[in-house]
Design goal:
Blueprint: H1 5-40, E1 57-59, E2 68-72, H2 74-86, E3 90-94, E4 97-100, E5 104-105, E6 110-114, E7 118-121, H3 125-128, E8 139-140, E9 156-157, E10 161-164, E11 167-173, E12 179-182, H4 186-193, H5 206-210, E13 225-228, E14 231-241, E15 248-251, E16 254-264, E17 281-291, E18 297-299, H6 304-310, E19 314-326, E20 332-334, E21 342-351, E22 359-362, E23 371-381, E24 384-392, E25 413-423, E26 429-436, E27 443-451, E28 455-462, E29 464-469, E30 480-482
Parallel strand pairs: 1-3, 2-4, 3-6, 4-7, 5-10, 6-11, 7-12, 10-13, 11-14, 12-14, 13-15, 14-16, 16-17, 17-19, 18-20, 19-21, 20-22, 21-23, 22-24, 23-25, 24-26, 25-27, 26-28, 27-29, 29-30
Antiparallel strand pairs: 8-9
Length: 483
């Protein structure tokens, strides 16, 4: 059969038109599908409404987390951090709820943002397991500048929230609604204080009564927050509660900001220091309240032989607007682990009422290192049961992991200034000054300008040189002369 040429041409045109229409429909369908895919992934160049970091924002509950104060959410945290890492950085939001978890690490270019109603809480007692084994909690290497755990020879427990070799990390909440990180330290304090060897000297029995421990602690407890070998860190707008050990511990870190935090642990809770910068530089600590069982702030740089071998000083530290609600140690301690050296540290505009020893530089003839350029200004004190101003070389135990027999080593201490140290109304001070240098190193160039404290005014001085003015009782300190 023969078809007319005109009919064939018309059929071809209809076919081509139909094909084009189908192609357009398919193309539009593919475009819509691709748009749908794109809409599920936040643009990486936009800033998160939770802290302002550029990049995607992830919600912890999208990874299976349940904030019911019962579910163990460690896998959800691990998956969520992995998603941030895969994206090259971003924000992980912890929404309202109480999220029980074991320890986890962050990644670089990450913001961990807690909603004002959010709590990241340590595992329940049944999840943690029987102490002192606590088998779900990893053990990690000792710090290189310590050579062992602080309390025990060998390795130590990892931190609750941590990270190693990171850059650009933030743990924060809204300035108007702070979240909470609670380490549930009570079972850890119980095993530290009690166990098969009986109650440790200086410890309270209350922890072991609440959480009986079936043996003696073998590894040094972990910190609440610890970043190591990292830089560009911010920790802000947080309630930090019940750390098993020191609360915030930046180790060998640089460019660190810690501000707007409230740290709380019960009285008599062992070693619950507030903020302890260690072998770190360029650190700002400000707007910080503390209630706990040890130093409000303790500045460190390594322990005996391992510290001076590691040889990383702590320097360029600014501390301001810190309030001690209650402390069983110092408002600001320098040492006693300070074998890598301390330099250029300023502490100002702080209220260290209700601390035992106020401003305390503590070291020993075995520590090594040095202390120089320490400046205290506008400090309020009161109800010190020890001395308000202390620089004492008779403090600190030897590091048992140093293989060679410990021998005295030089530790020069110099250029320490005290300016406008005043007393809170209605308080007293048991001791004013406790300055004790080493036979090998007199404390040099102490400058006191305006120390106005009332109380028993005990003054103990030896091997110290400096000047004073506006300090009526400083004349009792041999080695200090009027300016």
């Amino acid at each position: 059969t023969h078809t007319h040429p005109h009919t064939s041409i018309m059929s071809l045109k209809r076919f081509l038109c139909l094909a084009a229409c189908v192609g357009n429909i398919r193309a539009m369908t593919v475009l819509r599908e691709s748009e749908a895919v794109v809409s599920e992934q936040p643009p990486t160049n936009t800033k998160s409404p939770f802290g302002g970091r550029a990049g995607p924002t992830f919600n912890l509950t999208d990874f299976g987390a349940i904030g019911d104060n019962a579910t163990l959410n460690t896998p959800a945290f691990v998956k969520a951090v992995a998603a941030v890492e895969k994206a090259g950085g971003g924000t992980l939001v912890v929404p309202t709820g109480t999220f029980r978890t074991g320890p986890f690490n962050m990644t670089s270019h990450m913001t961990l943002f807690l909603d004002g109603g959010a709590t990241i809480f340590g595992p329940t007692i049944s999840q943690l397991g029987e102490g002192p084994e606590f088998t779900m909690w990893p053990v990690v290497d000792a710090l290189p500048s310590y050579g062992q755990g602080r309390d025990h020879v060998g390795p130590r427990r990892t931190a609750f929230v941590g990270g190693v070799n990171l850059v650009d990390i933030t743990v924060t909440s809204s300035p108007d609604a702070w979240g909470t990180i609670d380490g549930f330290g009570q079972p850890w304090w119980a095993c530290h204080c009690g166990g098969s060897d009986g109650l440790l000297e200086g410890c309270s029995s209350e922890w072991n009564e609440m959480y009986p421990c079936k043996g003696s602690e073998q590894f040094t407890r972990g910190h609440l927050i610890e970043f190591m070998h990292s830089s560009d860190i911010e920790i802000s707008n947080l309630f930090l509660r019940n750390s098993p050990f020191w609360t915030v511990h930046p180790f060998d870190c640089h460019h660190v900001t810690i501000r707007n935090i409230d740290i709380w642990a019960p009285a008599h809770s062992p070693n619950t220091d507030g903020v302890d910068p260690d072998s770190s530089t360029d650190v700002l600590i400000e707007n910080f309240r503390y209630h706990g069982g040890d130093d409000v702030i303790a500045i460190k740089s390594g322990w005996d032989c391992f510290g001076y071998q590691y040889n990383h000083s702590t320097r360029d530290i600014v501390i301001r607007n810190v309030t001690a609600v209650y402390s069983e140690a110092a408002g600001c301690a320098i040492g006693s682990e300070m074998s890598g050296g301390m330099a250029n540290i300023t502490i100002s505009d702080c209220d260290f009422t209700q601390t035992q020893s106020g401003l305390n530089i503590k070291y020993s003839e075995y520590r090594g290192g040095y202390v120089t350029g320490i400046h205290y200004k506008n400090i309020i004190m009161g109800n010190q049961s020890r001395s308000a101003l202390t620089v004492n070389s008779n403090y600190g135990s030897k590091n048992p992991s140093c293989k060679q027999e410990s021998k005295p080593v030089p530790c020069p201490v110099s250029d320490i200034t005290y300016e406008n140290i005043t007393q809170a109304p209605g308080t007293s001070v048991k001791g004013l000054i406790d300055f004790v240098g080493l036979d090998s190193n007199t404390i040099m160039n102490v400058v006191i300008n305006g120390v106005h404290l009332e109380g028993e005014k005990t003054v103990k001085c030896s091997k110290v040189q400096g000047t004073y003015q506006n300090c009526a009782d400083c004349a009792q300190c041999s080695g200090l002369t009027p300016a």
